[in-house]
Amino acid sequence: MLKEEVYEYLREIPKGKVVTYGQIGTALGNKGYARAIGNILHDNPDTLANPCYKVVNSKGMLARNFADGIAKQRERLIKDGVEVIDDRVDLKKYQWHEDI
């Protein structure tokens, strides 16, 4: 798994949608990549070009270690039209499924 594969996946996520770390891992061949993906996103050199703010955990919680800070993640999601309540996103409503 290369960083660029992760960043490319992020760029495909539509506005107003989120994905989980495990979802990215599954799309790239192994759900077990979730932790490695978290590390890649933490080192993201350009969080606007590679929108890692659209990634939440499997419970819809925002990332405490988001590269630009959790407040920025919350702000960017809200700007995208994603409702964030208590630093959580409703995955039933906002999770992106590539086959849709």
Task: Describe it.
The chain is 40% helix and 8% strand. It is built from five helices and four strands, in the order αβααβαββα. It has a two-stranded parallel ribbon with strand order 1-2. It has a two-stranded antiparallel ribbon with strand order 3-4. Strand 3 and strand 4 form a beta hairpin. The N and C termini lie far apart (25 Å). The model has no long low-confidence stretch (mean pLDDT 91).
Q: Brief overview, please?
A:
With 100 residues, the chain is mainly α. It has helices at 3-12, 21-27, 34-42, 70-79, 91-94, and strands at 19-20, 55-56, 84-85, 88-89.
Structural class: mainly alpha
**Helix segment count?**
5
Envelope shape: globular
Strand order of the largest sheet: 1-2
- Identify the CATH class: Mainly Alpha
N-to-C terminal Cα separation, in Å?
A: 25 Å
Tell me the CATH superfamily: Winged helix-like DNA-binding domain superfamily/Winged helix DNA-binding domain
Q: What share of the residues lie within helices?
A: 40-55%
| Tally of separate domains | 1
Using the CA coordinates, give the radius of gyration: 12 Å
Sheet having the most strands: 2 strands, parallel
CATH topology: Arc Repressor Mutant, subunit A
Write the layout of secondary structure elements.
Blueprint: H1 3-12, E1 19-20, H2 21-27, H3 34-42, E2 55-56, H4 70-79, E3 84-85, E4 88-89, H5 91-94
Parallel strand pairs: 1-2
Antiparallel strand pairs: 3-4
Keywords, please?
two-stranded parallel sheet; Arc Repressor Mutant, subunit A; two-stranded antiparallel ribbon; mainly alpha; 5 helices; 100 residues; 40% helix
